[in-house]
Amino acid sequence: MSPFVHLPNQQALNHHTPLKIMRFLTIFITLTIPISAQVYSPSNGNGNRDGNANGDGNNTANGSNNGASTTVERKNTSASVYGNELPFVDPTQETITIMGHTFGLGDNRIGGMFESYLADSPNTSEDALEYRATIDSILKAVSPYTKNITVSQKIRDGFSFLPRAASYSGDGRICDSLSNAIYAAMLSKGTVKNSKQYIADLEKEKKRIIAKAEWMRRSGSTALSSNTKLRIGLPKRQNGDAKQAPLHTESYRIQEMQRRILEIETLKKTHQGKSELNMLQARIEYQALLAQLFIQRRFEHVIIGTRFYNLIFQDGSSKMHLKKDSDVNKFFTEGLGVEPTVTGLDSAANEAMRKAKSLVKGFQNHLEYNELHSASKRLTEAYAIGEFLPVLQTVPAPERRIVLEYVRSGNDLIKAMDVRDYTQAKIILEALKKRSSDFDSTKAEGAIAAFTRASNGHIRSAQLALLNGDQESFQEELKKATQVWPTNPKLDEIDKQLDSLLEDSDMVKTLVDDFDRLLSEDNFREIFDRRFEFVPVVKDDTSRKDAIEQIVRNITRIDGTISLAEVSSKNGNNFAAWEALAELRDEFPKDPELLQRLEKLSSKVADFTVALNRAREFEDNDLNPQTGSALSWYMQAKSIYPSSEHAQEGIDRLSKRIMPDELGQEPAESSSENPFDEDMPVK
Amino acid sequence: MPRRSSSNSKKKNQLALYTLAILFAIIALSIGKSFLNQQAQHFTGLNEMSLADLKESGTSLSGNEYRISGEIADRMILANNRGLLVSIKSETAKGEAGLIPLHIPPRVNQINLERGHNYTFKVEVNREGLPVAQDIKAD
Q1: Residue A376's closest CA among A340, A347, A403, A414?
Q2: How far apart are CA A500 and CA A651, in angstroms?
Q3: Measured between alpha carbons, how far is A190 from A73 in angstroms, rounded to an integer?
Q4: A655–B81: do the CB atoms touch at under 8 Å?
Q5: How far apart are CA A450 and CA A447, in angstroms?
Q6: The pairing of beta strand A680-681 with beta strand A101-104
Q7: Do A585 and A601 touch, CB atoms closer than 8 A?
Q8: Beta-ladder partners of A96
Q9: What strands, in cross-sheet order, belong to the sheet with A95-98?
């Protein structure tokens, strides 16, 4: 969350001026920071992070945000010192890249830091106040506007405050790091100073040797050896005119002096190179620290560092030695179109601090009018610019709490949308609309409407496919519906339908099994009682259908007869009731209801039934026909119940056995052709 | 006193006389009735058919002749000129009461048999235990 921004299409600025820096910062903040954690940004509705678009209009509500706002994580392989370590905010993708990882601005790891800030108490402790006073003192001590103090004194004054500032925990020992950098720079500067002195000494020695050699040339080699009064560096009138003196180039001493001069010259050049290198190295290290502090959004420290830099390196060169194509370098070259300088860094830090103050003020204004959405955006922007700035650290706790609750709701909305729980998303959305007067719900509502409609459409298609028995289409549509809206309540309806079908399938099998079992047990009554269960499931089975139809028909008949018998019994005619049921007994000897009713009636018509039973026994005795005994019992039965059909039928049957005349004589031929030639009672 | 005694004794004698006369009359009536009954009952040479035996096993009576007296409870003309089948409501001397089936072949059916009227039948039990009328006397 650094103010470094990657704007590939932005035209480079031509001049490095404070006005342009301000404009630049304004542009990048406007473009990047508003996409803060609490702002709803619906993800791609198809939810396929592998890019499997379902083509059902899921992108209609997303606009240019392709679902990368919340969970984007991309690993970059660059490991340059000033490469991907710098955070880059990409407004087109609403992402931020830190240490080679790319996150959505709504990502919890970013949002979590902001939420942590919101939940924290304002930093107004005594230590914090003292720390800020110390920082102000340092800035004042090294300020270029502080007059009547020498540069070295400024450095000493400012430097003396740094340990005190570093002792505060919130400083993160950055002032210590700054102290070390300043000390190292000063040492380098001292080394260079010593080196310059040494070079000056060498130069002095060289000049002395040259003068001596000149004198020797003028006086000759012998004179050089004999004239002990000659002193190098004395006026020419005392040592003679060297130009007039003959040159003795062959002299060993002259040659030795020439060699020494060359050595000195070489030594001087070497030290000069080393000095320059040391200074460059010191600058680079110092600038690296400044860049690092800038990245860390420690803008106050950046300003302190740049002021110290200007005091330490007073040669006027503030050009930063950055690796070409590095992010920091791009910030200046591509963003501003100028070479990166320490002064530019100082200006950018100042502008960031001013912008943070402005955003916090805007946040408070929005809060006053219950414009929570804008307020949270402003605070997030300010936080993204400089979370360590005093203006951010001193935001009152109640104001933070309001934004925190709003941001949490916003994050909940994002999570709900991310997992495609549109039911919950809608609830949260309504709550957000009520809470904030400026919450723009159109995007989220559009997304919810689009996705829910798409999911419901797939469900309808699935249901149609289910009705048509098209299992393949059903599965496909169901899959699409689930992808679009996994928690769609209508999916539960589909599940219930499927469960019902499965249960029905099981039930059909169970019913058929039950039917077969009951049929094998001749438990027709049970089949009859459950006929409304069995009939639908055996309707396509001819044999079972015929069986159940017959059972229903017969039992209906039996029950009808039982009903009639009950009526007769109630009228006191138990014999008629018994006879009606007994007639059915021969046809349905296993019907429990019929047998039970007969048994119940038998006790009431015992004499009658005994007579009939005995008659039947004698009648059926084929081995020893007892026509007389059988007729005797039938007649007795008829005497008990004169209307007895059973008795009359028995008599009729037996009468046919009676021979026409003499005992044992065969009965006459039945004149079957005469329909009136039947046994008949005579009244 | 003696007159009074004579009168009382006379009255006593008269009472005894009347009593004896009544007794004689009763005895005479009983004897007469018995005689008359004796005279009215037909086929007295035959035993009454046992209703219990007929009900338990008619074939056990097969070939025997019996007398059946009683009221005709029901009658049925048998087809093919096989005579009548009647049921006789009978009460034997043993106190057995019930309906007895009786086949009256055409050759025997010489008189009008009406329901509710009493008749006495001479029967023979056929091989299936069914009494077959041999002769009929109206009572």
Answers
A1: A403
A2: 63
A3: 48
A4: no
A5: 5
A6: unpaired
A7: no
A8: A89, A103
A9: A88-90, A95-98, A101-104
For residues A219 and A352, give the distance between their C-alpha atoms in angstroms, rounded to a whole number.
Answer: 73
pTM across the whole model: 0.44
**Number of CB atoms found within 10 A of residue A353's CB:** 20
Structure tokens at A655: 């009468």
Is residue A230 within 8 Å of A219, Cβ to Cβ? yes
d(CA A131, CA A137): 10
Is the Cβ pair A682, B77 closer than 8 Å?
Answer: yes
In the numeric block, the tokens 């936080």 are attached to A383
B interface with A, Cβ–Cβ below 8 Å:
51, 54-59, 61, 73-85, 87, 98-101, 103, 105-107, 115, 124-132
Distance from CA of A589 to the nearest CA of B (A): 28
Q: What is the ipTM of this complex?
A: 0.76
Q: How many CB pairs under 8 A join A and B?
A: 122
Q: Which has the minimum average pLDDT: A451-460, B53-62, B105-114?
A: B105-114
Separation CA A474–CA A482 (nearest Å): 12
Tens digit of each residue's pLDDT (9 = 90 or more) over A51-68? 333 333 333 333 333 333
Strands (E) in A130-202, as ranges, are none
List Cβ neighbours of A523 (8 Å cut-off, separation of 6 or more). none
Pairing of the two strands A680-681 and B118-125: unpaired
Decide if A603 touches B, using CB distance below 8 A: no
Are A404 and A372 in contact by the 8 Å Cβ rule? The answer is no
- Tokens standing for A424? 């919950």
Q: Write down the number of H helices and E strands in chain B.
A: 2, 5
Nearest of A505, A508, A526 to residue A517 by alpha carbon: A526
The 8-class DSSP code of residue A75 comes to B
Residue type, A70: T
Instruction: Point out which residues pair with A161 in neighbouring strands.
Output: none
Cα distance between residue A68 and residue A59, in whole Å: 13
Cβ(A572)–Cβ(A604) under 8 Å? no
Tell the residue number behind the tokens 């002769």, with chain if given. B135
Do A628 and B51 contact (CB within 8 A), yes or no? no
Closest by Cβ to B99, choosing from A618, A632, A678: A632
Amino acid at the residue A5: V
Contact between residue A355 and residue A383 where contact means Cβ atoms under 8 Å apart? no
Residue in A284, A290, A312 with CA at minimum distance from that of residue A303: A290
C-alpha angle A211-A217-A218 in degrees, rounded to nearest 5 = 95
Q: What angle do CA A572, A574, A579 make, to 5 degrees?
A: 145
Q: Quote the crossing angle between the two packed helices A442-467 and A471-484, to the nearest 10°.
A: 170
- For helices A606-619 and A574-587, the axis angle rounded to 10 degrees is 40
**SS3 per residue for A491-502:** HHHHHHHHHHHH
Distance in angstroms (rounded) separating the CA atoms of residues A352 and A382 = 9
Give the pLDDT confidence of A316-362 residue by residue, as tens digits.
Answer: 677 777 777 776 677 667 666 667 788 888 888 888 899 899 999 99
Task: Determine which helix (DSSP H) or strand (DSSP E) holds A151, and give its type and residue range.
Answer: helix A151-166
User: How far does CA A11 lie from the centroid of its chain?
Assistant: 36
Cβ contact A662–B105 (<8 Å): yes
Q: How many residues does chain A have?
A: 683
In the three-class reduction of DSSP (H, G, I as helix; E, B as strand; rest coil), residue A547 is classed as helix
Per-range mean pLDDT, top range of A74-83, A100-109, A466-475, A644-653: A644-653
The answer to whether the Cβ–Cβ distance between B55 and A614 falls below 8 Å is: yes
- Please state, rounded to an integer, the average pLDDT across all residues of chain A: 75
